[in-house]
Design a protein that fits this description.
Chain lengths: 166, 71
């Protein structure tokens, strides 16, 4: 299914390139279109690694829409880290990468009518016995998230809350 | 919180590891750890039943009410 989606995206972009060569007379416009498409594929390639968290969440990255919330949860951070791995595995989010040393999690959402998918970065910070959970949700390649970032926060927080009934 | 979870006491009495209980009860060790620390929001009767069955004890052996202002 995912493979078919990727092929469809590829076909859409090849079509755009073809159409742009027909309708855009100047070479300059053609290069701009190619640059934008190249940038999209670059973002798509970089999204699956925690190493590029700063790239996607940076305020200087004008190609993504990002939101951040912090929530205090009264569970120690190591335990919450393990708990969230379980929660994400049982949810619609896809667990992509975890960093056991820095206690960071990267999850993604699939392509939907509002966006090309979002990246969700989770990090954990201890405050006495509690944990401050920081959730970043960034779009892959668009300036407006159409509310998807907030929907991601709400879904994740609800799933965490629900999972605390054992 | 006025409800104290004595799961660790019962585990020690039965000389059972959390992992063994997890396998027997079918609840993840993460969830049992959170339960042990009294950080869960609620506990299902089915989970309580499975824990009591595995540890051969009563719900009162695991959960205890202690008034907040008591020393």
């Amino acid at each position: 299914m995912k493979f078919i989606k990727n092929i469809l995206v590829f076909i859409v972009f090849v079509t755009i390139i073809q159409l742009s060569t027909i309708y855009l007379s100047s070479n300059g416009m053609m290069w701009i279109v190619l640059f934008i498409i190249g940038f999209f594929f670059l973002n798509r390639a970089l999204r699956n690694s925690l190493s590029f968290k700063n790239y996607f969440t940076s305020p200087y990255n004008i190609t993504t829409a990002k939101n951040c919330i912090k929530k205090e949860i009264d569970i120690p951070k190591e335990l919450l880290f393990e708990k969230l791995k379980e929660v994400i595995n049982d949810s619609n989010f896809k667990l992509v990468q975890t960093d056991e040393e820095r206690l960071e999690i990267l999850a993604t959402t699939s392509i939907n009518p509002y966006s090309w998918g979002e990246n969700i970065y989770l990090s954990f910070e201890s405050i006495e016995e509690n944990t401050i959970l920081t959730i970043y949700s960034t779009t892959l390649f668009q300036r407006i998230s159409w509310g998807k970032n907030k929907i991601n926060f709400n879904n994740l927080l609800k799933q965490i809350d629900d999972s605390l009934t054992v | 919180m006025p409800i104290i979870v004595n799961l660790d006491v019962m585990l020690a009495k039965r000389k059972m590891m959390l992992k063994e209980l997890s396998e027997e009860v079918g609840v993840s060790t993460v969830n049992l750890s959170i339960l042990k620390q009294g950080k869960v929001k609620a506990i299902r009767f089915s989970t309580l039943e499975a824990i009591c069955s595995a540890l051969d004890c009563q719900p009162g052996d695991i959960l205890e009410f202690v008034e907040e202002n008591s020393e």
